[in-house]
Amino acid sequence: MRAIILYDSKTAGGSTDRLIDSIGMELAKSGAYVEKARCKAQADYSFVQEFDVVIMGAPIYYLLVSSQLLGALVQSNLKKNLKRKKIALFLTCGSPEPMATLLYMPQLKIHLVPNKILTEKIFSPQQLSDPAVIEEFVDELTSAYRKATRKRNSIVSWTEEAEELLDEVPSFFRQRIKTAAEEYAEDMGYTSITPEVIDEAKAELGGM
Ligand SMILES: Cc1cc2nc3c(=O)[nH]c(=O)nc-3n(C[C@H](O)[C@H](O)[C@H](O)COP(=O)(O)O)c2cc1C
User: What's the domain count of the chain?
Assistant: First the structure.
């Protein structure tokens, strides 16, 4: 697995910096290749394409996810480059977990509706340097990744209408479209491919 940790913090060498180093080391122990990058609101995120998993997170300051990460999701090409990427989310904050789940995590998740979220974790100040908690986060992430990428044994079926649409595709191109639509449907948890799913996949995958 190739993983990139995209993060932000206003505190150089602070708790978030230490946390991502621990996450990175734990992931590397599991055999993953890991890089980290501090977010800037306006930057080119095309490098994200090279990674299988994007681990994304930041602290909360004054009720908001740290501004460069949120800014990158709104102002840059990050969201475009996250298309179909598997994501893991983390936050560091002082608030109790239920409050953070309700108020802070959605600030990230609202930008990631089409993505597969492998795992998410809100780290309290006490958990930031707890190796067992970090290990658990990484274990959850790696097992969810393995499950999501397990050799596909497609159980997705095609409705008659969707098959008719597929038949209209030139034969030399048909298998590619079929596979792309089935992969999309599986990623999204659909069990059958309808014309609406094909339209949705086309919009998401840029015409397939
Ligand atoms: C200026 C400031 C504002 C903060 N505001 C909040 C907040 O609104 N809600 C919260 O849960 N935690 C808040 N925290 C706690 C931080 O999110 C938490 O300590 C985090 O681990 C800091 O990460 P850092 O060391 O990388 O800066 C705040 C911390 C600071 C320093």
Answer: 2
> In degrees to the nearest 10, what's the CA dihedral of 21, 96, 132, 54?
-40
Question: Does ligand 1 have an atom closer than 6 angstroms to the CB of 66?
Answer: no
Q: Is 9 in the pocket of ligand 1 (CB under 6 A)?
A: yes
Exposure b/e, 50-64, CB count within 10 A at least 16 = b: ebebbbbbbbbeeee
Backbone angles phi, psi at 180, to 5 degrees: -60, -40
Task: Tell me, yes or no, whether 76 and 45 share the same domain.
Answer: yes
Average pLDDT of 119-126?
A: 96
Do 36 and 113 belong together in one domain? yes
- Give 75-86 pLDDT, tens digit per residue: 999 999 998 899
Nearest to 121 by CA among 204, 19, 190, 12: 19
pTM of the model: 0.79
